[in-house]
Amino acid sequence: MASAADQMAANLSLASFAKATDLKKRLWFTLGALILFRLLSFIPLPGIDPRALGTLFDTTRGTVLDFFNTFSGGSLERMSLIALGVMPYITASIVVQLASSMSPSLAALKKEGEAGRKKMNQYTRYGTVLLATVQGYFIAVGLEGWGNGAAVLDPGWVFRLTTVVSLIGGTMFLMWIGEQITSRGIGNGVSLIIMAGIVAQLPTALAQVFEGGRTGTMSPVMIFGVVALIVVLVLGICFMERAQRRVLIQYPKRQTARGQMQAERSHLPLKINTAGVIPPIFASSLLLMPLTIAQFAGNRVQGESAWGDVLITVTAALQHGQPLYMLMYAAGIIFFCFFYTAVVFNPEETAENLKRYGGFIPGIRPGKRTEEYLDYVLTRITVIGAAYLTIICLVPEFLIAKAGIPFYLGGTSLLIVVNVTMDTVTQIQSHLIAHQYGDLIKKAKLKGGRGR
């Protein structure tokens, strides 16, 4: 039934695509915004020597900076205006959401509708500026001391100030682009920006894999295994993202047109992975922000003080494939799975809505018992979803650390690309179906007017 419905939706989408002018505008706007994002990633910061920076960055291959570079679409490697990407914005949104779950005043603000949402967004923007300022300063200081300042043309406070201001402006502009894609494009603005950065790096990653096969550093069996693993991961992601636990909902018997009493039934779909791609992004963001600061600050003061050696030791312990990194990353994914699921689905509110409209779960009393049952089911399927995300993200990381595969082919990158692609296709189908329904309503009105 589900496949037949998907096929029908696809046929309707293809038939109405030629007439969906609004969707075409949204698609062109989204494409233009992503092209602008890619162009900005090639504009370097003032006072940077790109060639010297490229040489220095080659020495950090396989470190946390390489992973951060993946999410920024190569912007960090080129130290462009948008080198920080959208990570400060994501980290700020995490902090604001955590604060709203613990602060009664912020929780009440979330319930104030559009005005409350705008206020929360404003707090997120303030946090983004603060985090970008801190990261920008430590990057500027780290660049001055990295390789004896070879990448900086004129070190000093002027360079630091211009770097901080440029990075803040780049991050805020990128955040604004993401919001515009969400409102005027096809949605998922920030996620699309992250996905565009990862996809832009995929050709380089594939080229490195095949170059390894040509030079003999990677065996043909290993290359075949990498390709097979990617296919299995993509299929597994597609299956799990569509998996649902359907809770039967029954409504009181109602009299039909023929005078018969008939009970109505429907289903409440609960996704196995309710949180989507948010947990890996949030966990990566929280790990990458302090590690990036530690990496650049450690490069600046390494050998000059004990703190520099401590920072280098910490960043070395938190590299990909290291047990401490894997443990913290897995803990972050699991935590944000449960946290974000609690944010997007409220069992109490759902139970109250069912009770208001006369719906009930067979064998479960309406009200408090329904809330407890929904919470019971949601908790257990979230355990499965958290385990799925942890396996998808961590198993490839072990292989990357052991086999030297480029970071861009990691489980987190594939999860983001596949998940965002599926969400985008769903958004496009929704626009097309809404457009077709609008056409049907217009035709019905025209026929009604002619009948009169």
UniProtKB/TrEMBL annotation:
Organism of origin: Allosphingosinicella deserti
One GO cellular component, as annotated: plasma membrane
Pfam families xref list: SecY
InterPro entries attached to this UniProt entry: SecY, SecY/SEC61-alpha, SecY_CS, SecY_dom_sf
Membrane-topology descriptor: Multi-pass membrane protein
Gene name for this UniProt entry: secY
Complex and partners: Component of the Sec protein translocase complex. Heterotrimer consisting of SecY, SecE and SecG subunits. The heterotrimers can form oligomers, although 1 heterotrimer is thought to be able to translocate proteins. Interacts with the ribosome. Interacts with SecDF, and other proteins may be involved. Interacts with SecA.
Family stated for the protein in its record: Belongs to the SecY/SEC61-alpha family.
Record function comment: The central subunit of the protein translocation channel SecYEG. Consists of two halves formed by TMs 1-5 and 6-10. These two domains form a lateral gate at the front which open onto the bilayer between TMs 2 and 7, and are clamped together by SecE at the back. The channel is closed by both a pore ring composed of hydrophobic SecY resides and a short helix (helix 2A) on the extracellular side of the membrane which forms a plug. The plug probably moves laterally to allow the channel to open. The ring and the pore may move independently.
Name used for this protein in its record: Protein translocase subunit SecY
Gene3D superfamilies found in the cross-reference section: SecY subunit domain
Annotated compartments: Cell membrane; Membrane
Sequence intervals crossing the membrane: 27-48, 81-102, 123-145, 157-177, 189-210, 222-240, 275-297, 324-346, 377-399, 405-422
